[in-house]
Amino acid sequence: MTTLEIVRQNLLSPMALCFALGFAATFLKSDLRLPSGAYVVLSSYLMLAIGLKGGVALSQTSIGDLALPLVVTIVIGSLIPIAVYNIARRLGRLSRADSGAIAAHYGSVSAVTFIASLSFLDAIRVSYEGFLPALVAVMEIPGILVALVLARAREEAAAAALNATSDEFDPGPSTRTGLKEAVHEVLTGKSIVLLGGGVLVGAITGVQGYESVKPFFVAPFAGVLCLFMLEMGLLAAGRLREIKGAGAFLVAWGILGPIALGLIGAYFGTLSGLSVGGATVFATLCASASYIAAPAAVRIALPAANPSIYLTSAVGITFPFNLAVGIPLYYQFAGRFAG
Questions:
Q1: What CATH number has the domain bearing residue 140?
Q2: Cβ distance 224 to 45 under 8 Å?
Q3: Among 21, 39, 59, which Cα is nearest to 198's?
Q4: Which of 62, 77, 137, 259 is the Cys-Cys partner for 196 at CB 3.0 to 4.6 Å?
Q5: What pLDDT does 302 receive?
Q6: Rg, the chain, Cα only
Q7: Distances (CA, A) of 121 to 14, 67, 325
Q8: Whether the predicted pLDDT of 28 surpasses 80
Q9: Nearest by Cα to 230 from 8, 52, 47, 30
Q10: Residues 131-143: pLDDT tens digits?
Q11: Total domain count for the chain?
């Protein structure tokens, strides 16, 4: 199957077309709206379903098979926000707070983009490791925390430099409390709790326990995903109007950044022993931008950051790009690195 055929198949999948329908409805000024709270319900279902499935697979995975991908996930998840912060600060000339917010969003992962990558691989009948949902939960935590700590440390260092001596500088209780609350928000956020908790439940109950809930979490999954992508299309289209004021750097980063991160992810995913499908998913994790866990943590730890910058980049630019072109591209990267 050629690259163009893969992209065409991906664009014509029910998931992508539902996203396009929501996108088009906004431009047509339709009154299409899902019921209030649908986003939370649908995303909760999807993350718990993926977590359970991953936990069952994890219960059948040896520590030897999991160890290297797990280490690579932690290392890459910690390095990405550092690189993104410096790119946003030096090339984008964004403020420390905005650079930290961008780093947190791209250092973290998009659970929905992850699910989209699994659906893409299922559609083209490419297998992948079942323990991948565990890597999602593992990567999300350092990705956000490293970015927030880095941004706060730079802000405090800059503030200290304005004082006569560093001894006179005290970040104050509100600064320390804000970072502490952000850490708590990351660790207890719904994406971590549902994905991580689902993995734990699935690993404990195993195949036998999973069979009892399979009719609810397997058969309706594709339909629920289509509804969620419809909602995401509405959300992304609403952010699209802000791209004009986002600046050339943000638009360029929203597309070129994921390509570079996806290339790195495909290489190290293959190096860690993942299959072509697994490396594709890992590349997608590296290239994706969070819009569930990261925004909540950023609002607490970096209140000076501009939401129109990090949300427009993550939701308005990177998410549609990954959905339409990025995931098939990362599959090609993984295939090339696997030989």
A1: 1.20.1530.20
A2: yes
A3: 59
A4: 137
A5: 85
A6: 20
A7: 14, 24, 14
A8: yes
A9: 30
A10: 998 888 788 888 8
A11: 1
